[in-house]
Amino acid sequence: MYNVLVADDHAIVRSGISYLVDLQPNFTVVDGTASGTDTYMRIEQGDIDILIMDLSMPPGENGLLTTQRIHDKFPQVRIIILSMHEEQEYINKAMANGAMSYVLKSSPDTEIIKALQHVINGENYLDTNIIVSKNDLKKINASGNNLNLEGYNSLSKREKEVFPLIALGYSNKEISQKMFISTKTVEAHKANISRKLHLHGRVELVQYAIHHHLIDF
Question: Residue 20 is inside which H or E element, if any?
């Protein structure tokens, strides 16, 4: 039995996908999340084999970045992107960042089922409604993406989790409650982020996050 996590900011979408997946033999949905940060933290807890995730779960971390972080830390988790974004740029980046499959929300349910079958066999799968050129495939197979994240990648795992919450205006107390850490630890993370990224104040931090597409609104 493959344990599936469904990540989407709309509860009705999570319920619909969960119902569909649970109907399939050998698959069971064990949890649902509504943001990139919560998704990463749930993956961190273990027992997830397959992640079905939306790329846009505002307000919060950009889904492309969440995909990369999960793939880098938990490469055994097979990621299926379920998105409204049909632009080739999104598809290329998602696959380059570690997703095994990309399915459009506008497609029939059968595409999700096909994606599940392919990823458990270790195969990539693109929605049949997506037309990919040879040049696109080269971009997908190329390493990395065009985000200039050298400074960002120097942040620790926890600093990366705190970063979008700071940018979105959460208070130290709200972040501490959400992350189950003390307010002093939040302050320390803020200081480290500012130092590593050479940022001065929240305004510059927000500008950095928006410029590098690290958060969605």
Answer: helix 11-22
- Give 66-132 as a DSSP string: HHHHHHHH-TTSEEEEEES---HHHHHHHHHTT-SEEEETTS-THHHHHHHHHHHTT--EE-TT---
Summarised one tens digit per residue, pLDDT across range 21-38 is: 999 999 999 999 999 989
The residues, any chain, with a CB within 8 Å of residue 33's CB and separated by 6 or more, are 5, 6, 7, 39, 42
Task: Measure the CA–CA gap between 52 and 42, rounded to whole angstroms.
Answer: 13
Distance CA 156, CA 143 (A): 22
Based on its alpha-carbon atoms, the radius of gyration of the chain, rounded to whole angstroms, reads 17
Joined together, the tokens standing for residue 171 give 């208070």
Q: Which domains does the chain have, with CATH numbers?
A: 2-141 (3.40.50.2300), 152-216 (1.10.10.10)
Kindly state the tokens that stand for 184.
């002093």
Rounded to two decimals, the pTM is 0.70
Q: Report, as an integer, the average pLDDT of 151-155.
A: 86
- The helix/strand/coil state of 175 is helix
Angle between helices 157-167 and 63-73 (to 10 degrees): 170
